[in-house]
């Protein structure tokens, strides 16, 4: 009788094990992966990415409707690694985090500087770029140092690192905040502001597009920092995958080529 009960118990255990195995086979996500953006992207074969549309060299939408830039290269490489097609959503400094919080994008790849206050709201990946902030002025401007910003009107994009720098480090300057980089550039071009503070990478893109119209103030870069991809908090599987991708991407020829094309240098050792 006891032997019969033991054999029956073994049969039940074997049946349960087979059922568990079936649930974690290639036909269904393994335990712990359900609900992750990683699983969703792999199943739908589509990656939705928030990118800039007017911030060279990071991201620009051409007249054809196609995007190009440093961030676009990284986004496409991430999509390729997942075997997914890519869908771009244009973003600004101010709405990058809301896009993630509301689930309208799977990831933001838009020059998101790795600030502690941002990491309280969204998950920040390991760095994929590094940069500092500079000041652009019209050629021939009498602004030749950061001290000269006192009492002058300085443009920056809302929600950006430069906007924070102006508030905290240059309270005597008159900050003029815009929703998009293009608006800031136009304000400088039309003499509505005296200077424009932007990341060195974006500033270099502006100089390349404007000939000798603007110059960068000859001073050390402000707030050297690293740049991360942004993800919605609480999805460790997705964050783990993106971090692994960046680790491999930053040591690849593709990343180095992109860095040289858009930022004029090799991938910094700091982020390898």
From TrEMBL:
Keywords in alphabetical order: Signal, Transport
Solute-binding protein family 3/N-terminal domain: residues covered: 46-266
Gene3D superfamilies in the cross-refs: Periplasmic binding protein-like II (3.40.190.10)
Pfam families: SBP_bac_3 (PF00497)
Residues of the signal peptide: 1-30
PROSITE patterns in the cross-refs: PROKAR_LIPOPROTEIN
Highest taxon of source: Bacteria
PANTHER family with a match to the protein in the record: ABC TRANSPORTER GLUTAMINE-BINDING PROTEIN GLNH, AMINO ACID ABC TRANSPORTER PERMEASE
Similarity annotation: Belongs to the bacterial solute-binding protein 3 family.
Protein name (record): Transporter substrate-binding domain-containing protein
């Amino acid at each position: 009788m006891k032997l019969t009960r033991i054999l029956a118990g073994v049969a039940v255990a074997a049946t349960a094990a087979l059922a568990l195995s079936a649930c974690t086979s290639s036909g269904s996500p393994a335990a712990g992966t359900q609900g992750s953006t990683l699983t969703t992207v792999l199943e739908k074969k589509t990656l939705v990415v928030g990118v800039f549309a007017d911030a060279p060299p990071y991201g620009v939408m051409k007249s054809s409707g196609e995007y190009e830039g440093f961030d676009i290269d990284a986004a496409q490489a991430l999509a390729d690694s997942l075997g997914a097609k890519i869908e771009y959503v244009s973003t600004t400094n101010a709405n990058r985090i809301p896009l993630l919080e509301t689930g309208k994008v799977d990831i933001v790849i838009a020059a998101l500087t790795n600030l502690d206050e941002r990491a309280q709201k969204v998950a920040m990946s390991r760095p994929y770029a590094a940069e500092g902030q500079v000041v652009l002025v019209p050629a021939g401007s009498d602004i030749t140092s950061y001290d000269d910003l006192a009492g002058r009107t300085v443009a920056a994009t809302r929600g950006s690192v430069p906007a924070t720098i102006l508030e905290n480090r240059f309270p005597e300057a008159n900050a003029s905040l815009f929703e998009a980089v293009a608006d800031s550039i136009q304000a400088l071009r039309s003499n509505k502001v005296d200077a424009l503070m932007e990341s060195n990478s974006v500033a270099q893109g502006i100089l390349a597009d404007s000939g000798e119209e603007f110059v960068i103030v000859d001073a050390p870069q402000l707030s050297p920092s690293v740049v991360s991809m942004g993800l919605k908090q609480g999805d460790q599987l997705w964050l783990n995958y993106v971090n692994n991708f960046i680790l491999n991407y930053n040591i690849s020829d593709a990343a180095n080529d992109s860095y040289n094309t858009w930022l004029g240098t090799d991938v910094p050792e700091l982020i390898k």
